Amino acid sequence: MTIAAIVLAAGKGTRMNSGLAKVLHQAAGKSLIQWVLDALAGSGVGETAVVVGYQADAVTAVLPIGTRVAFQEHQNGTGHATEVGLAALTAIPATVLVVPGDMPLIRSTTLQALLEQHRESGVAATVLSVEADDPTGYGRLIREEGELVAIIEEVDATPDQRLINEVNTSVMAFQVETLRPALEAISSDNVQGERYLTDVIGVLRCAGHRVGSYIAEAEEGLGVNSVDQLATAAAVLRGRDDDQLHRVHHKRQDAS
Fold first, then answer.
1. Residue 230: half-sphere exposure toward Cβ, Cα within 13 Å
2. pTM of the predicted model, to two decimals?
3. CATH number, domain containing residue 173
4. Of the four listed, 13, 35, 43, 128, which is most buried by Cβ atoms within 10 Å?
């Protein structure tokens, strides 16, 4: 199974209150997008395309050699950005993994597990979800008899739907053969006037395809949209480094 990745990194990140593109902000010594690309590098993904827009040159400058770059001239939503990323790939993969560029806490092992479940289940799409204590700001996973049928963005959700605590991380694996026509079918008829990638889930279901989900640890679903969230992510990452150093030190003591 050939797997490619699309990293969505075109946004400005207005809530950061900074002139710097959101994905270039630093957390524990590396930019947000570097953390994401490192996770992808350890997950078995082949070619990667990064969709850039705001401060495109600055974002492109930090990308590893060999990374495909796709320019999204007009930020028309994540669905449109995914189309732009697909067009930049040099070969058509069987599976494409879409990952936001602002998720520094995502782990390679989680991406591997998501892709493995996606492959084994044979579904058209697999969504990485988390169960959030506070789901505010996130898209909610809508289920019927336990099966995922749609993802509703918070601004479009009903009061009852906003009570759901299983939320979308915006990390999704797709079969390319079903993703392309589904992207063409989504519209911008919503509160924000954008083409949501999340709408693909409902389109696929209406077309008779099965979709699934993989639940990750809650911290991995944190997307950085504010200075406070950046500080939280940095603290978690530093904690992981401390844990790793402790384990190495403990092993050395055992060996002595």
1. 19
2. 0.92
3. 3.90.550.10
4. 128
Query: Does 15 participate in catalysis according to the annotation?
Result: yes
Q: 193: which 2 tokens?
A: 């006037």
How does pLDDT run across 111-129, given as a tens digit for each residue?
999 999 999 999 999 999 9
Residue 102: what are its φ and ψ, rounded to 5°?
A: -115, 30
The two most distant CA atoms of the chain are separated, in Å, by 65
Q: Per the residue annotation, which of 15, 143, 238, 247 is the catalytic one? A: 15
Q: Pick the closest to residue 212 from 121, 106, 111, 110 (CA basis).
A: 121
First to last CA, the chain: 44
pLDDT at 249: 41
Reference 125, options 148, 143, 157; nearest CA is: 148
What are the residue ranges in the chain where pLDDT is below 50?
A: 245-246, 248-250, 252, 256
Domain coverage including residue 97: 3-255
Q: Token digits for 174?
A: 């797709």
Q: Tell me which amino acid residue 112 is.
A: Q
Count of structural domains within the chain: 1
